[in-house]
Amino acid sequence: MARQVVRAGTVLWRVHDRNTSAENLPAEGAVFSADRGCAVIQSLLPDPEFTSEGRRVLSGRGLEGKVLSAVKTTRELLVFSAESPVLELARDDVDGARWPSSQAWPERELWFSGVRVKAGTFSVLPDDSFGLDTADGVRRLKELLAPYRVRVHARASRPIVFLNYRTAGGTEEIMRLDDELRGRLGDDAVFRDHRSLTAGDDYASKLIECVRAARVLLAVIGRRWENVYDEDGRRLVDDSSDWVRREIAEAFRAGVFVVPVIVGVRDGLIRERLPKEIRRLADLQFLHLRHRSTDADVRNFVDDLFEQVPILKRR
């Protein structure tokens, strides 16, 4: 097994929690890279999914509390060359291991044992280190990761897309749509009630607040959307307390861009069969999404959505 020397004075990069130090290693060791981009990708995107554009997405939530630090070695370190990640040592004559990066080829990663590598082996270069969850950190990350086709999203201060739908029509398409939009815009940029609301939230006020704050509301309309009835035989859409109706009406009042999304085979909405406050919905040009859509169908749909909705296309 080939051994290699990491010379004293070598600059390495490591992503770590803000409440830990870059130069002191935990007992289980830590992973470094001589390339900044590789250090970020391997730490925060070890097994990424790709969008239909062939890009990886790094969400703001994954950046919280993280720091990218530069350190310089103060002595020579001996590592052995491996073909895949090694996070423990089977021999005591080396300090760590080195292997090809799986996500940032042709770069390599380095792992150093927290037992073998003692305090003082690394010195931090503070001028080259920065927090990843700040506005400046996100800006620097975007520049750094652009060559790797990684899109970086800061945590959204408000939702960009609000998903409006009836659970009675099934939620399979909603889940896929939510996943694809979050992959492109970031987790916090897409509001879906059952995922976005947390314990203790005031359900009603949170829904209205997020509708008003959104840039786009997608009104997902299934085959029976306007013909779902309550236990007394009344159409839900005729009930002023129906949340699907309330969200759409609030979006119109707040000037949110509303896009009807027809799911499956059905005709468009009939204006006269809708409550007055949401009749505009029947006049809007709709997009179509196949019933029981595959992941590819949803990716194509979102491509079309971004192309046709200027607010999203500029993101």
TrEMBL record:
Q: Which Gene3D superfamilies match?
A: Toll/interleukin-1 receptor homology (TIR) domain
Concerning SUPFAM superfamilies, the annotation shows: Toll/Interleukin receptor TIR domain
Q: Provide one Gene Ontology biological process annotation.
A: signal transduction
What protein name does the entry list? TIR domain-containing protein
Q: Which organism is it from?
A: Amycolatopsis coloradensis
All copies of the TIR domain together span 157-309
Q: Which domain of life is it from?
A: Bacteria
